Amino acid sequence: MMGFTSVLSLASLALTNSVDVHPHQPHVEAFAKFQQRYGRSYEKGSEEYEHRLSLFSKRVEEADAHNTNPARLWSAGVGPLAAHTEEELASLRGWFGAAKGGMAKRGNLRKPVMLAQTGAALPEQFNWTSLATLSTAREQGGCGSCWAVASATVLDAHAEIYQSQQRSFSTEELVHCVANPQKCGGSGGCEGATVELAMDYAINHAMKTAEEMKYTGRDGKCPVEAVLSEVAMKPAADDTVDIASVGLHSTSSGIGSMMTHWERLPENKYEPLLQAVYEHGPTAISVDAGPWSSYMSGIFNSCSKDAVINHAVVLIGFGKSAKHKYWLVENSWGPDWGENGRIRLLRQDEEESHCGIDRQPQDGTACEGGPAQVQVCGMCGILYDNVVPHFIKK
Fold first, then answer.
1. Are the C-beta atoms of 336 and 39 separated by less than 8 Å?
2. Which of 67, 83, 242, 332 could lock onto 149 through a cystine, CB 3.0 to 4.6 A?
3. d(C-alpha 312, C-alpha 298), whole Å
C-alpha cells in the first residue's frame, strides 16, 4: 500500500512534468546581462528573442568547451557577437557572395615605384599602438565595409606618422564612391569590395575628411564627382604592371594628402610584411575571420590552413609572449570585441610554409573571371593579400 508521502511525491512529479522547462533556461539570466551590456533589446517571448537566445546558448557552450583545453593559446567567451546570425557575421566580414574569381586586372602602369626596404634588422617586438589614430578600435556596424574601414584606418595612420596636411580620410566616402564594376570581394559599398580599390580611389581623388563625411554604416549616393585618373587607368605600351599590385600618384590626388603611391606586397611572403609594418606603418591585410567571433584574449591559432579570405583588417605590429610570436591586428568590430578591439594571431618563422588552398576566393579579394582557387599562407591566410600606402617623408 502506497504511503501518503509517496502519493504526494508522485503528484509533485506529475505537476513538474506538466510544466514546460525552457530548453535554454541555464542561459536566460546570462542572456539578459548580455543584452544590457551590449545594448540589445529582444522582446521576451518573441520569435526573435528565442532565436537569439538559442544562438547565444550555443556560443556559450562552444566557448566553455574550447576553454576546457588546458593547452589552448587563446580563450573564447561571450562578446558582442554572441547572438549574431551567420548572415550577420558574414556581413561583418564584408562578403555577400557576389564575386567570382581572382584579383582585379585593371590596367598597366609605366615605371612603377615599388616598396623600398632599408634592410635594417627587425626587433622581436614592435607596434604602432601609440598613434592617436589607433586609440580606439573602429566599429563598422551592420555594413560590410571592413575594406573601407581598414583602408581609412591605414591612411589616417600614415597621415599621422608622416605629418600629412590632411590627417583623416572619410570611410563614408569610400563606401559611397568607390566603384566596383568587376565585383571584387562583393558588389560594392556595404556589400563588399577590396582595399586595392579603396587605395586606388584615394590616390586619384581629393578625399573628404572623416568630419566632412561622417560614417553612418549605410549605403548611399556618392556626393563627390568621381574623375578617374588618366595615369592610373591608361595602359602602357611596355612595362606591364598590374594596378592591383602598385598604384602611382595622380595629378587629381588631394592637395594635402602627401600620398605618392600604394603597393600590394609580394603574395605569401613573410619578411616583406614584417618590414612593411615596421619600416612604413600600419598595413591593410586580408584574412579568414570566420572563426574569430568568440575570440576574447590570447594568441589565436584556430584557423585552418585552407583559409577562406573574407575580411579586411589592419596589421599594427608584431610581438612575442613567453613561448609564442604573434601578429598584432586591429579589427573593425568595436572596442568591446577581443582585446580592446584587437586580436593576436600566431606568427611563425616558417610562416611561408604554413599554406593551404582558398577554394572560395570570391569570399574576399576575388573578382569576376578569376581563378577558382588560390594558395594562401600564414595563420588565417595573413600573408596572401596585403597593401601599404606610401606618403612623402619629411
1. no
2. 332
3. 21
pTM of the model: 0.84
* Cα(42)–Cα(48) distance, integer angstroms: 7
| DSSP-derived secondary structure letter, 339 | B
Which H or E run contains 281?
none
* Beta-sheet pairing, 342-347 with 325-330: antiparallel
Helix, strand, coil share of the chain (percent; to 5) = 30, 20, 55
Helix (H, G, I), strand (E, B) or coil at 328: strand
pLDDT in tens, 269-310: 999 999 999 999 999 999 999 999 999 999 999 999 999 999
Q: Which three cell numbers, joined as nine digits, stand for 275?
A: 618590414
- Are residues 301 and 253 in contact, defined by beta-carbon separation less than 8 angstroms? no
* Buried/exposed code over 167-204 (b: 16+ C-beta within 10 A; e: otherwise): bbbbbbbbbbbbebebbbbbbbbbbbbbbbbbbbbbbb
Separation between Cα atoms, residue 216 and residue 91, nearest integer Å: 16
Residue with cell 564612391: 177
Return the closest-CA partner of residue 349 out of 320, 380, 315.
320
